[in-house]
Amino acid sequence: MGIRNQTRVVEFVFLGFSGIPNSHIYLFLPFLAIYMVTVLGNLMIFTMIQLDSSLHSPMYYFLSHLSCLDICLSSVTIPKILVNFLRQRQTISYNQCMAQMFFLISFTGTEALLLAIMAYDRYAAICKPLHYSLLMNTKVCTLLAFATWICGFLDSALHTALGSNLYFCETNQIRTIFCNLPPLMKISCSDTQAIEMALGMASLFVGVAPFLFTILSYIFILSSILRIHSTTGKRKAFSTCGSHLTVVIIYYGNGLLNYNRPSSGYSLEIDTLVSTMFCIIPPLMNPLIYSLRNKEVKGALKKVLESQSKSVCLHTRN
Known about the structure:
Largest sheet: 3 strands, mixed
Number of helices: 10
Number of strands: 3
CATH class: Mainly Alpha
Structural class: mainly alpha
CATH superfamily: Rhodopsin 7-helix transmembrane proteins
Strand content: under 5%
Radius of gyration: 22 Å
CATH topology: Rhopdopsin 7-helix transmembrane proteins
CATH architecture: Up-down Bundle
């Protein structure tokens, strides 16, 4: 039996900030500031890695990819939010929604895979130090990094293809601040059972598998660290993993809140908060974590600032 009044909507309405009167006045500047800090922070990390030869190692090579991902991820969602604040209309066209969903899922999936690769890199460095240069040579690192991007985009292509076949009968209002497949499925009048099964299978490969692989890597890492007799050696081993482990906790913590909501759903306010944290917190925190907790990054930053200061002084004298 067919579903009546099926239609393809022209645009979607975001309800995320509807509960905040005059939200465009109070939220535009904070969101703009967060976006600028996110982009500049990740761009700083990426630039330092390219310029400082002491950071030309597998760990920082993957970190440069993570910085690129974080710039892309924040750029998929926040600029549209800022534009809507200026327009004072929380809407997005159907085509823009599909594009936003495609890139959002691409970058989040790629980041999950990349974090798993970074965990393997730490495993190889701590548990297999004699074979590290062979296990993580330049060719292997390049193949692993670009494989994560390809897998992320292939996974997103599946999600977007499924989402583009949804029909909407009664409403085009989404209880969030960006386009993603779960909230679209929630307002759709299509039969979503097959889509849910396909998404479940895809999530196993791009979400659950990288998470379990990361956990397993850290179990082996912890086991190896505990066998180190030297306190200094233990501290050094922990310091090389601390930043990455913090990033993993923040990323998966936000992901679990965003994708594993109760069947009854959150209130609109909680939905908005969870969505905001998901698109803002990981890209914003990653450069701060790596710059504050990592001695090599802080050393490279100091050298860059000192060289810039000298250049300014010389330019002023001339």
